[in-house]
Amino acid sequence: MSDSQLKKSLPIVTRRTAVKGGFATLGAAAFVGAISPLRHAAKETTAAEFMQQHYQELSDEDKRKVIARLEDETKEEYGADVTIGDDRPLPGTKFVYAINLSVCNGNGKCVEACHKENNHDRATNQSYIRVLEMPKGTMDMEQGNTTYTHTVPDDGKFYLPVQCQQCDEPPCVDVCPVQATWKEEDGIVVVDYNWCIGCRYCEAACPYHARRFNWKKPEVPAAEVNPDQSYLSNRIRPQGVVEKCTYCLHRTRRGRLPACLEACPTGARVFGNILDPDSNIRWLLENKRVYVLKEELGTKPAFFYFFDK
């Protein structure tokens, strides 16, 4: 039986309403039958998808099958041909980001680039980046405003882009009850979107408001789907899961720069491998006075901010 035939023949279950491992005691068929009446607004999932192992437990052959299924589903649901990679961390690499707040002028091009690059829902104009308009003299995010509509930059203000800080002590990872999110060797915190149950504990735990919950199935016109995707990055995420910035790992692990950096017209963004002694980011961190957000929380962000003066 083909994957498509199997998908049509199996009952529908909802991943968000299930407790991982339940089928171990009930048996797969019994467990699927037991939870199928609990369907609601979350992503509906076939039994084959539900019983997929955690990403870190999949063999290379299993990954190929899963990725092939996801590519087929994207073609069926969005009318777009995509290639989903399995991009792994590069040896000897620790990715770090920094932003020059003296240069950022709040233009929002980074927000737009993230929206398009990462196949976000078009109707909600979602992005992993928020740009806060801040009063000068403070780094307190709570004093920032993201809804400004006037011409930028404004007198007496500076602009603070905030996205996932890729913490070395990520509270979002600690609270996940099913280990759907974890930190990889190159410093990037990732999510297995096929394993996430949508409990939103990670969203609540993040002090930077860097996680996003998919309340509905993303709407992306076929012509606007970014076809260059990665399993742990910018593939179109299902409804009912929490997603996040991955430093565009589908680009950075292939030797490219994050989309937000390439779109920045002011040159405010700096990205690179801190383990490379000749990298721009290494020089910056050794020669500039840098700040991290909410340092008192001990999350140890890999995202830095600095001013020219």
Please provide a written account of the structure.
With 309 residues, the chain is α+β, with helices and mostly antiparallel strands. The protein has a domain at 3-84. It has 11 helices and 14 strands. The chain has helices spanning 3-9, 22-26, 28-35, 47-50, 60-78, 109-117, 171-175, 201-205, 249-252, 259-263, 280-287, and strands at 12-14, 44-46, 83-85, 95-100, 130-135, 157-162, 181-183, 189-191, 211-213, 228-230, 242-244, 269-273, 290-291, 303-306. Strands 12-4-14-13 form a 4-stranded mixed sheet, covered by helices on one side. The protein has a two-stranded antiparallel ribbon with strand order 1-2. A two-stranded parallel ribbon has the order 3-10. A hairpin with a 5-residue loop joins strand 7 (181-183) and strand 8 (189-191). The longest helix is centred in the N-terminal third of the chain and has 19 residues, at 60-78. The chain starts with a helix and ends with a strand. It comes from Novipirellula galeiformis. Residues 187-216 form the 4Fe-4S ferredoxin-type domain. Keywords: 4Fe-4S, Iron, Iron-sulfur, Metal-binding. InterPro entries: 4Fe4S_Fe-S-bd, 4Fe4S_Fe_S_CS, ET_IronSulfur_Cluster-Binding, TAT_signal. GO terms for molecular function: 4 iron, 4 sulfur cluster binding; metal ion binding.
Question: Oligomeric state of the chains?
Answer: single chain
Number of strands: 14
The helix-and-strand class reads alpha+beta
Q: Count the helices. How many?
A: 11
Which of globular, elongated, flat, extended, rod-shaped describes the shape?
A: globular
Pfam family, one: Fer4_11
GO molecular function: 4 iron, 4 sulfur cluster binding; metal ion binding
Organism: Novipirellula galeiformis
Domain 4Fe-4S ferredoxin-type: 187-216
